[in-house]
Every structure is written in C-alpha cells, then in structure tokens.
Amino acid sequence: MLLFLVTLLFAAAADPADEPPLAAPPTQLPGEEQPPAVAAPPRFDLAHRLQDVGLSSQAYVEYLRQAALAPGDDEAFWLQMRALEVLIEAGAHDTALRHLEQLEPLPEVRMAASYTLFLEQQPGAALVEIARLDTPEASFLAGWCHLQLDDEEAAISSWRRVEGPGLLHDQALVAAHRVETWGPPPRRSPALAGVMSAVLPGAGQAYGGAWGDAGAAFLVNGLAIAGGVELARQEMWTAFALVALAEAGIWAGNVLGAVGGAHSFNRRARSRRIDRLLDDQGPVLVVGDRELGLTVQGLE
Questions:
Q1: Separation in Å, CA 171 to CA 91, 105, 119, 277
Q2: Per-residue pLDDT tens for 77-92?
Q3: Largest Cα span, the chain
Q4: Residue 45, exposed/middle/buried by CB under 10 A (0-12, 13-18, 19+)?
Q5: Phi/psi class of residue 121: alpha, beta or left (left: φ > 0; alpha: ψ in -120 to 50)?
Q6: Are 170 and 179 in contact (CB under 8 A)?
Q7: What pairs with residue 294 in β-bridges?
Q8: What does the DSSP assignment read for 110-160?
Q9: CA dist 138 to 75, 84, 90, Å?
Q10: What is the pLDDT of residues 211-243, one digit of tens each?
Q11: Contact 286, 292 (CB under 8 A)
C-alpha cells in the first residue's frame, strides 16, 4: 500500500499538464525572405453583378451611389461612365444623353455623346461632336454617321483615315471595301408606280411589293366604280355625282399611295443593307478601366 501511494505522488509530480507549453516553431528563420502575402479577394461589385443579370435600373442607381461615395474625382468620373454604359446597353439613349449633359465635356464624354447620338439616328448631331475629336475612334464612328446620311463617299473617306495598326484600322478598311463593292441597291421607280396605279388601281402597290395594299386598292376602287355605273344605269344622278366625287378622291389616294410605297421600298432596301453591315462591322462603345474606346460588333 505504501508503495502504491509513493508511485501516485511521483506520477502527479511528472504530470505534463503542469509543464509550460512548448513554444511554436518559428515561421521564418533568420535571414530567410518573408513569404509573399496572399492577395485580398476583389471587392464585390454590386453594380456590375446587377448589370450582368439585366437589372439595368438598379445597376445604374448603384453606379451613381458609388460615384457619389468615390474618394477621388477620377474614380467618380469613371463610375459615371459605367453608369452611362448601363443606359446604352438598356437602349435608354435619351436618358444617356441627359446623363452626359451633367458631366464635364472631356474627350471621353464627347465620344460617348457622339456614339449615343449615332444610336439615336441623329448622325448630323453626332458629327458635330466628332469634329472636336482627332482619334481613330472618332474617324471610325464618323464613317458610320456619314453612311446613315447616305453619303457613301464621305463614309469611305472617314474609314480610310483611321490610323493603324489595330483592330479599328483593319475593320474600317473592311467596311470601306464592302461599301465600295455594294453596287446599286434594288429600287422601284415612284413615277412608274404612280402611272401603274393610275391605269389599274393597286398595280403600283404590287410593283412596290405591298400586296396587301394592292388588293385593298383594287377592291375599294372596283366597288366604287361598280357602284357608280349602277347608279348611272338607274339615272340616279345626284347619288352618282357623290359616288364619282368620292371615287376621285379614292383613286388619287391610290396613286399617291403607290408613289409613297415605291419610296418606302427604296428606303427599306437601303436600310437592310446598312443593317447587315452594322451587324458585322458596326461600332460598340466599351468602358474599360480608366479608358473608353470603340470595338467592333461581334468582337467585343
């Protein structure tokens, strides 16, 4: 029994729980270089996430909020430009122009304004802004504005002024070559369409490809003429005079409609050709990190 108690006393004296903890081994030896710090994860950009999922209004407001809280004018400006990009992507061009009016007229703002006016089918106003710039992007966009104004020679000249090398230079030459080799677009003669409908109501509309209008013109004029003939047979001259007067107006409208239909055919033929070129080579505004520029449709 005495031996057992002595053994317990020695065990308690040697209990490792009473010993001081061992020091952790050093993470860096003397003379050894400090290991590189792990980069902090990027800041969660709520506005960019909202933009990615199509919540344009919320993304725009969030960019404006970030711009108001930005520590410097430069960062605030580029957040404003990103807010503009949201508006353009959403097709809110009027709002985009009003947004740009609030910013200082820097070259980037003028470039963005000219691009937005181009999207709004206001090429003349866009060229006014472009005239104040002297960059490859400005020359590239000027070509598209001239094309909207049906001035193919000016468009080709602007594209050939795009300095290279670079993406815009190459794509400008491609666009210039395609316009040079277009040839005359399909067209209809407004005068011929009017004469055809004067002889046979609806014929001019059919010539312009408006078959529904052609059928309606033929039917309405045919009924009016048939009604007038029947009234004349019955010697109802007063009613005949009224129907004849109405038919004269209907016939004149039929002729004018054929002339307008030919003009519309020509505009549509030209617009389709320009739209196809825009789909392949058209300009796209890009807001990068502290920079703004143009890229090409399908290559952004």
A1: 25, 28, 19, 11
A2: 999 999 999 999 889 9
A3: 152
A4: middle
A5: left
A6: no
A7: 285
A8: HHHHHHHHHHTT-HHHHHHHHTT--SHHHHHHHHHHHHHTT-HHHHHHHHH
A9: 24, 18, 23
A10: 998 899 889 888 888 888 888 888 888 888 888
A11: yes
In the chain, the amino acid numbered 19 is E
185: amino acid identity, one letter: P
Is residue 123 within 8 A of residue 133, CB to CB? The reply is no
Q: How far is C-alpha 209 from the chain's CA centre?
A: 30
Nearest to 135, CA basis, from 168, 103, 100: 168
Indicate the SS3 state at residue 256.
helix
| Amino acid in the structure at residue 11 | A
Say which residue the tokens 């503009």 belong to.
Answer: 84
Residues of the chain with pLDDT under 50: 1-44
Return the DSSP state at 1. -
Q: Provide CB contacts within 8 A for 142, sequence distance 6+.
A: 127, 130, 158
* Whole-angstrom distance, CA of residue 66 vs CA of residue 86: 14
Question: What does the block give as tokens for 153?
Answer: 């020679």
3-state helix, strand, coil in the chain (%, to 5): 65, 5, 30
What's the rounded Cα separation, in Å, for the pair 19 and 238?
128
The label of the residue with tokens 């014929």 reads 203
Cα–Cα distance list, 127 to 19, 34, 111, 137 (Å):
85, 58, 10, 13
Whole-angstrom distance, CA of residue 149 vs CA of residue 147: 5
**Please, are residues 294 and 168 in contact by the beta-carbon 8 Å criterion?**
yes
For tokens 């890229």, what's the residue? 295
| 151, 176 Cβ separation under 8 angstroms | no
Quick one: pLDDT at residue 288?
83
**H helix or E strand, kind and range, residue 215:** helix 211-233
